[in-house]
Cd(2+)-exporting ATPase
Amino acid sequence: MADAMEARPPSAVQKTTFTVLGICCSSEIKLIDRILNHLEGIENVSVNVLAKTATVVHDPAKAPASRIVSALNGAHLNAGIKESGRVQIESRPWPSKSVVASGALLLVALCSYVFPPLIWIALLSVTVGVLDMLRRAVAALRRCVLDINVLMVTAVFGAIGLGDYLEAASIVFLFTLAEWLEAKSTNKARVSLESLLNLAPQTAVIAETGETVHVKDIMINTIVSVKAGELVPVDGAVVAGASTVDESSLTGEFMPVDKEIGSNVWSGTTVLTGFIKVVTMAVAEDSAVARMVKLVEDAQNRRSNMEEFIEQFAKYYTPGVFLVAAGTAIIPWILGVHPLRQWIYLALVLLVIACPCALVISTPVAKACGLSAAAKMGLIFKGGNYLEALAKVKAMAFDKTGTLTEGAFEVVEVQCWEPNANIRQFLHWISSLENMSSHPMARALVEYARVRGVKPSSEVRNFNLIPGGIAGFVDDCYVKIGNAEVALSNGWLRENELRDNEAGITISYVGMVDRCIGYFCLGDQLREEAARAVQKLKKQQIHVIVLTGDSRAAAEHVQKQIGENVQVEAGLSPEGKMKKIAELKETWGLTAMVGDGINDAPALTESDVGVAMGISGSALATETANVALMSNDLRRIPEAVELARSSLRKIYQNVAMSLAVKLLFFGLAFGGLPSLWAAVVADMGTCLLVIFNSMHLLHKYGGRESSTCSSQVPQEQSINVDEFSEPLLSSERRDQDEEAPCLCCKGRSSQRER
């Protein structure tokens, strides 16, 4: 029986995204959940109110997409299957014909104050404008959902029952007009979000044949051609030509980056000038832009703790106020309290006040605008919870190598002490083991060996990370590479036999079983913007600490450059970094960790907010982190904190505004002051205020230009393009380019492609 179970194929489920243009606010989430969860074959439903989409995981055999669309449209939600790669945003420059007609008829009806028979025109105004609202209210009631349409329709017919035809017509017109204004005002936020989700190119041109194919059909090591004005379709390396590329869609850096043979390019970036041929390094679904799109989609669909709380509050608030309104109308009638008309009118005002739309959208709209603005800056949060958490962070830890430093190591010294091996054999052992690592140091060592004619072995067995280094079998020899602690703990060397430490130099020892067979030294440079970024974090009242597995001398060298007021901890293993994060959380509270490598993964997981650096950083680091920084510009970190704090302030402001208006009108209602139309204006007006207040985040941060120098290009993975390169333009690297003047700062800069 067990074998039969193992042989059974997995359920053929798929994920489909639907546009649901009939979504008004978060109250429709419950309606959509109830509609779809009653269908067989539905596994998960995730609704994005701002983007007006529903992402459904379903079994197409039991619940085909067409059936899901029909079920949603049965509730008049105007649903359809979202077409991939296209921005699908409902943007009506003018209100619908029914809204305009309802408003025009209301204007005529207002003349009844002069000519009373025109009052009947108000009923015609109601009839024209209420039909769509009535259909949605009936659909909601059929599923036992008390939404805004039910409340408004009840208020309209209640006003008609009281003979207040003008009030009824005013409610219909103001509500439908406010719906249009709300849709129009959120359109910019939705367009901003959709532009992020549609970054991935759909087609590519095969260089050899000139054939245009879908990117999903492109395999690794395929060569594609890209000309000026086109999007780079795949992640890869340039093998012919030269160009200038705009990478702002991914990194948020607005300065174009020059690309030549050997340079890495990323899917979704734009070729501004020139013509290049690119060899594919990853399939479309594993590209940087595909990962970014998935992160953005998941973040938008994942509800934060604040959203959950507000929705739970609204879940009881609306029925509660509905019962109060019903009691206000029924109890005076039972007790014979007069005038009864006044109590019914008050109940209708309470019904309008019962609408929780402004309160319910107060958090998701601010969250969505914050996440969209962050993505425009090259910061991808994996959910609103992490945006809120970063706003409250009290301590932040940085990895040193590849995070605070460039990670562009240069081998400055190699010493082989093994009498039975020459330097080439020594480099073979080192490069073979380091070739299995994603650490920035590893790339430098492999390249150092390659230019000396030494190729790494493909037969490395039992490779694993050890505290302070790496180990594995190379050609049946068990080799370890690590820091001074590794050399001492394994008994290879005594304290006085270690090489003297130098500022800015990293020393690693190589050993076999019980002896040290040599060492190598690498140099690294601090990132130009590191000191400014760290000091800005200090001004934001955040405790900053540097965690490194490097020597105390190397750590103190960095400390002198970024500021003596920054704490440093040296000689830490991955587990040691994780323990230090736990201590920081206990001492300071919410703690963030910024890193880029596999050895940072435990600390990133332990932290409250983990930030992974760079497009080409370790996949494990990106997977375990909560925020992905698409560029290597450290100034984005304090900007992210600033954005997170602004987003949290907007959420608090929105909630406060929504509750204040509700409480004010509750008080005024029992004082007999507000009319029905005034209650509608206040309720829908608060929705608009909440939206406009949230969209300020997009205006302030979403369009912010980078202050990054054009010489600060994303760190790239090295790739051997010798077997692909061809002489399209000049393939010779000009030595003088390494010291060419930087266009934006007019100074000297090193722009080596790594």
Summary: Residues 636-670 form the longest helix (35 residues). The longest strand covers residues 236-246. The domain at 203-294+724-739 is CATH 2.70.150.10 (Calcium-transporting ATPase, cytoplasmic transduction domain A). Residues 1-10, 705-754 have pLDDT under 50 and may be disordered.
